Amino acid sequence: MKPAVFPIRLSFITLNLWITERWDARRPAVGEFLRVYRPDVLCVQELQPETRAFLDQCLPDYGRVEDPFTGWATEGNIYWNGRHLEEIEHGAADVGIVEPERRLFWARLRLRDGGITVLVCTAHFTFKGNSEEIDTGWSPRVRQTRQSIQALGRLAHPGEPVFFMGDLNDSSHPAYLLHEAGYTDCFTALNLQSPPTAPCVPTSQRLPHEPATSQTLDWIVGNAQARAIAAQVPHFFHGDLTPSDHWPVLAVYEIGGS
Prior knowledge:
This protein is of the alpha+beta class and about 260 residues long.
């Protein structure tokens, strides 16, 4: 009889960094959040060169994608714990996102012990307040989700665990379409209700006349080769500030095993 092989557990966090809004005030909260949670894989959106330099400082043992395409410094990137994971390859797929430097950013990572690979992808879909959507009522995120699903299908190796996460700027359409395509969000996989992820008040400093309806905009989904075992939206404060105007999403998955 072969001995049982225990599954590998990996933790993932997605976080919209809110460009550099209130950055001087929020910087300590971001640093403390990363110190406390230290995910195996961190996907960020609304990245800027200044915030990327700070993340590099906070995560000295981590790797991240380095690439001449400016979107990796001004929109999104993927960090991984370099003690346990290494990069094989990466890329940026155009999935029809309106903002010019946004892409479906992806990296194929290999576990240093065991050789298993995982495909990690992140994106920031177009904001609901874009002028065309307000005028027509048509959501560009439906098209962006479908093109992302096509990209995931092209990129994934047979039998490979796939993780897609980010600020999808939508509380319904992307999650439904991804689920139909075999990518289930971490909360649904655990029979849990997806908590709201935005806005974080008082950090976002919404004005009295501005809408502040709580919405689930940030998601982590995995395919059938990954089993979600924990998921949460940490309401993390450092002093009276959160790391961003979006709450992070944290999920833990098992892969492999027998």
